[in-house]
Give the backbone structure.
Amino acid sequence: MVDELSFLPQRVKPVEVKAKIPNNLSTEIDFGNGGSLQVFADPIDAGREITIRADSELNSQLEQGNYQIERPYEIQCPDCQGTFEAILTLPIETKGLSEEEMSEFQLAYRSGKDWVTVPSTVNLKERTVSGSISHLSLFSIVRWITGNRPPQVNLVAKPSYVYLGDSSIPDLQVEVWASDPNGDPLEVQVIIGVKTFLTEMLGEIVKFYKNNLT
């Protein structure tokens, strides 16, 4: 039986970083501990603020399951409306791990009670793990330690959004990477939905008139 608590990183200084998306839409946000976020934002989000918060106390709020989990990083941009592409780099903070153990880490985001891993690159010299992300969420780097490993799935839609005013709408391409570390057979289903900014805008307009008109 693996003692999951023994894998919790030592108490380290909390991280809280705030940065605005510049007009050139490309910026690298340094966390000051080896971690960083290189952002490639949508033009409509220039000037909006991104907040990164990390604290070891977040670990106590999450189920560990079969993973060794480094401290989570919560990345938010409440006012962002466009697509979001970035390269996230997080540090390996647990001490005493071998190179083999560190090489098993993967970047992952929280989905319900599960951690979903994304294709990652481990830099053993810098003790960091990097990966591409396309949404804002709770992120960490994780290492599977017991039991049957879950499938690894990554999906990218191209284009990730279209303007309804465009004279022509390009074909939608969906790229899916899926593999099972244990060699178990996989069945992949892709469900496509539509979300419009207009729907959100109309909802806010209705809310405004309800709150301000007598």
